[in-house]
Amino acid sequence: MKKLLLIACGLIVAVILGIATLILTIDPNQFKPLLASQVHKSTGRELVIEGPIGWTLWPRFGLTLERAALRNLPGFAEPDLLRVEGATASVAVLPLLSHRLEVGEVRLSGAHLLLQTRPDGSSNLDALAGSTSAPPHTQSDPPAATSTSPKPESANWQIDIEGITLEQASALLLDERNGQRIEIESLNLEIGALAPHSWLPITLELSGRDDAQRFTLQGSAELLPAAEPLASQLRNLELGGSLHSPSLRLDDFRLKAAAFALDKASPLTLNAKGQQADRAFDLQLATTVTLGRTLAGVTLQQSDLKGTLSGQGVPRTPLELGAMGDLKIAFTPFKLDAERLTLQAADLALSGRADVTLGTVPHLRFDLQGKTLNLDSWLGSAGAAPAKTTAPPIQSPAPVAAAGKPATSQGSGEPDLSALKGLELAGSLKLERLEHDTLVLSRPALTLALKGGVLDVQHFSADVDQGTLQGSGRLDANPAQATYQLNAKATGLQVLPLLQRFAKTDLLSGRANLDLAVNGRGLSAQALRSAIEGKAALKIEDGALHGVNLPEMVREARATLKGQRADYVKESRKTDFSALTADFTLGGGKARSQNIQLFAPALRVHGSGETHLVSEQLDFLFNTSVVGTSKGQGGRDIDALKDVTIPVRIGGNWSQPTYALDIKSLLQGNKVLEDKARKEAERGLNKLLGDKADDPALKGAADKLLKGLFR
């Protein structure tokens, strides 16, 4: 035992003496020219060591180096490809005797790297191998002697590195092909002990910027290196950072994964919090990621995204968001396919599939289904007072402007449709129910396409108010004032609730069929009314004209002709009809019709006139004729005016229409009525004057009086 102890002490003393002799007799600076020559021979670049090379004794024997640089070829942005302010490395001596190379921590401080790509695609990394590569093997070359080649001695060595530390490093990445410039202003990297088949701890911290944004990144992980780099594995991965740009502020993001390897499903979580424009977001994603070794794409299965969105322009802020599904992402070109997709925004839930392709203009395709969508909660109108762009309520009518002039309540602002110009869409949406104010659409279905700022609604259908609605249309957002086209067909709609909702009037009731073909320019409330053009055909069955009782007005006309007061009959102020048809022409801010037909019991009505769409003024004349029947509304009281045309004028406005018997029109140009009045006048004269009634002078005076009355 004593001998062994003496031998060990002798070895230690010998090592110490050897190191001392090495330090005292060998100056490492004398190797600078040799190192520079070997580097130039291997890389074709110049190695410059400005500072001294020295020995270190504590805590381990090693070397130090200061101010060294590997030069770039001429013509690049900086003279140095890589420069280092200081470097240290140490080696354990005793393990060398056992063929083990134990390198202590390798520390580099103040390192700076330049990576530059020129417009022609060449970079400062080209030709780093120099001109020492071996010539290619040819047929004339003698065969290699493999059987007698000794095994390299280095194969028996075990190499361990305690760690690598990079502190206060920086880098500049220039790509002149696209003008990109990225600066890594501060980089700190620690790599733990490098040992075969062992997990390697890594920590990273960096900050940098490019032309438009600043970013930071911090993280840690454990790496299990493999002979093939893409076969390496990660575990305990944690990354975090921030990003600030003019359009996006990512205050914090966190990514965590217990394990990650290529071609293997790896669960991970991602949290992101920040702000875009005036909208703040806070998102959390849990998913299982599979990244292929080709690095061409990634799949995210059982993805679950939750978060909130708040700020200006966000309905129901803060808006609760959620999404679940399976995603497949291709990187070149970027395309995202979402299957078994479920989207949640507040109480709106949609399901289906979608895909997104990113290019010069993003393209989105979708096929989604949902249950109930309440537009009031998204448009901010639920529970609010009626907007200024709608007609005033019946019970409190607003002042009506003169015909041909816009009412002061109409808005004039055009909506911002710029978002339609930077996106392409194609897809379909089906809902069980769509609600807006008191309007309820059942089973609405929509198919649309958006390209080049033009939105094509290829098909729309829904059930509403016991009827059906179908239509198609186009919206072009490219002009300063957007243009639109709309073709719609409604069948079996109940008119009264629609008029009450949209025109705030109860003028008509009944079951309606409508054909509409219109176009226009401008989407403001003012433009929608003043610039719309087109045709509308309306047919209403089994309905009523509210606010006017035409049989009552016929009785009034009868009494007027007899010079009597009409007997009051307590009846509701409405006119029942079996059918009402009308053809309207829209243009110049008005809706005009010369062909309004109303078929009521004992009455036939032909109407014409116009309504001003902006001021909401009404100007219609209904010529009412009594047909040969005393049945129905009005009865025998109106039989006496059979074949007499009785004019009724409708005026006022949508919310307060007025109805009046047009006496002047009643008396003028009515041949039948004139004949009846002439006979009544002759009968009266005969009764009053007796034999004198045949006097020509009296007859002439009476005839002149009647003609003046009917002119």
TrEMBL record:
Residue span of region Disordered: 124-154, 384-416
GO CC terms in record: plasma membrane
Ranges where the AsmA domain occurs: 1-594
An individual GO BP term: regulation of protein targeting to membrane
Bias type Low complexity, positions: 384-393
One Pfam family from the record: AsmA
Protein name from the UniProt record: AsmA family protein
Species name: Aeromonas simiae
Taxonomic lineage of the native organism: Bacteria, Pseudomonadati, Pseudomonadota, Gammaproteobacteria, Aeromonadales
